[in-house]
Design goal:
It is a single chain. This protein is an alpha/beta fold. It has a seven-stranded mixed β-sheet with strand order 4-3-5-2-1-6-7. Helix 4 links the parallel strand 3 and strand 4. The protein starts with a helix and ends with a helix.
Length: 197
């Protein structure tokens, strides 16, 4: 489906996740490039726990010694106690509890419509989002030139701009390299932090 999966295969990584980040918020996706229906099916206990673990790792890589990981709910209002779905109770909360038993500071599930605002205000270091748009819209809304895609779980540092390749404007001399510069800057910071651990 994309570079993330190719690099995971080549790097021998068992589990990887996409972290989209800027200076205000960072988000890790439980599911990546699939339909919303498939995302709901794929957001099982193992996918939740893996994303929480990788979010913890990503938060540490970004400099938080004990990252506060917020997990977004799948349904509106995080299911509203089962009124709008029970995935939060059946799947997401047990994964959070399992992560907490491993010593990860994970909490939730939090309503997806407010958790990013709380992260931006400093309450959380990383948000685990259930599907592509839930996690990427808040990061991209703050500016494409500031966002970075970081692949977690690889045995090496990998960053890229948080947007596509822009083939539609290739060769026209109008592409803005700001996001690429941001990705390179993040790669240097991640590598420097990893070297200090």
């Amino acid at each position: 489906p994309g570079h993330t999966e190719i690099l995971a295969e080549r790097g021998g990584a068992r589990r990887v996740a996409m972290m989209l980040a800027n200076d205000a918020i960072a988000t890790v996706l439980v599911t990546i490039h699939c339909s919303l229906r498939q995302a709901i099916e794929r957001a099982d206990f193992e996918a939740q726990l893996s994303a929480i673990r990788l979010a913890h790792q990503g938060g540490r890589a970004r400099g938080a010694p004990a990252p506060r990981v917020a997990v977004a709910g799948l349904n509106p209002h995080a299911g509203e106690g089962g009124l709008f779905g029970d995935e939060e109770r059946r799947i997401i909360r047990p994964a959070i509890e399992a992560a907490r038993r491993e010593g990860i500071d994970a909490s939730g599930p939090w309503p997806g419509d407010t958790v990013f605002m709380q992260a931006r205000q400093g309450r959380f270091d990383v948000v685990v989002a259930q599907y592509h748009d839930q996690g990427l819209i808040p990061v991209k809304y703050l500016g494409l030139e500031q966002g970075v895609n970081i692949t977690l779980g690889l045995p090496f540092v990998r960053t890229s701009p948080d947007h596509g390749t822009a083939f539609d404007i290739a060769g026209q001399g109008i592409a803005d390299p700001a996001s690429l510069r941001t990705a390179i800057d993040h790669a240097f910071r991640l590598a420097a932090h990893a070297a200090s651990l």
